[in-house]
Amino acid sequence: MKLWTKWLIAGILSILFGIFVLANPIAASVGVTILAGITFLLIGSIQVFAGFGSDETGSKVMGIGLGVLMLLLGISLVANPLEGILSLATVATIIIGANGLLRIMTSWQMRQTPLFWPMLLSGAVSILLAGYIIANFFEVAPQLLGILFGIELLFNGAGLIALALFLRTAKGALKDEIEKRLKQ
Questions:
Q1: How many whole angstroms separate alpha carbon 105 and alpha carbon 31?
Q2: CA gap 50, 141 in Å, rounded
Q3: HEC states along the chain?
Q4: What would the pLDDT profile of 81-137 be if each residue is shown by its tens digit?
Q5: Residue of 125, 93, 131 whose CA lies nearest to 107
Q6: Cα separation of 97 and 26, whole Å?
Q7: Cα 59 to Cα 55: distance, rounded to the nearest angstrom
Q8: Where residue 58 falls among pLDDT bands split at 50, 70, 90?
Q9: Torsion over CA: 24, 28, 31, 33 (sign)
Q10: Residues 33, 85: contact at Cβ < 8 Å?
């Protein structure tokens, strides 16, 4: 199977999974929360192990302490995924709002460029989105992670399909160029 075909299949699958996730965002939010909890458990275990391997007392205490905190967070997310959804949705909302604020601040530094308005509007939309999530938190929060994950899968799939088509086109153009030079 050609490389571009593999990327095309991956892109199509990503889009199909994105549609599937968006069809049931609450279940996807639970899945994302449990996966985040498992990830924290793994990283926390590695951190504790690495902390014990450290020679300095300060590094050892810090490494083990951070590892234990990650383990506790992982246990909490896995044991209580519905509460974990609310916690992660809160974090996602804060990140969306902070990102919007940073884009607005960055836009002011770009006042003399054509990118000022797109950057300003992008930041404003992010802040409005964060405000909407906060205003409707208990209705939106259970679905938020699933919706964000589904949108990410859709955009990822579109990007992979674009990459596949580029690779197919670039390979054809390269082949034509090589044949052209060989004839000379």
A1: 35
A2: 35
A3: CCHHHHHHHHHHHHHHHHHHHHHCHHHHHHHHHHHHHHHHHHHHHHHHHHHHHCCCHHHHHHHHHHHHHHHHHHHHHHHCHHHHHHHHHHHHHHHHHHHHHHHHHHHHHCCCCCCHHHHHHHHHHHHHHHHHHHHCHHHHHHHHHHHHHHHHHHHHHHHHHHHHHHHHHHHHHHHHHHHHHHHC
A4: 999 999 999 999 999 999 999 999 999 999 999 999 999 999 999 999 999 999 999
A5: 125
A6: 22
A7: 8
A8: confident
A9: negative
A10: yes
User: What type of residue sits at position 109?
Assistant: Q
Tokens 């990650």 found at: 70
| Residues shown for the chain | 184
Take residue 48 and report the two structure tokens written for it: 């504790």
Measured CA to CA, the distance from residue 105 to residue 124 in angstroms comes to 11
Separation of alpha carbons 47 and 59, rounded Å:
11
pLDDT at residue 183 greater than cutoff 80:
no
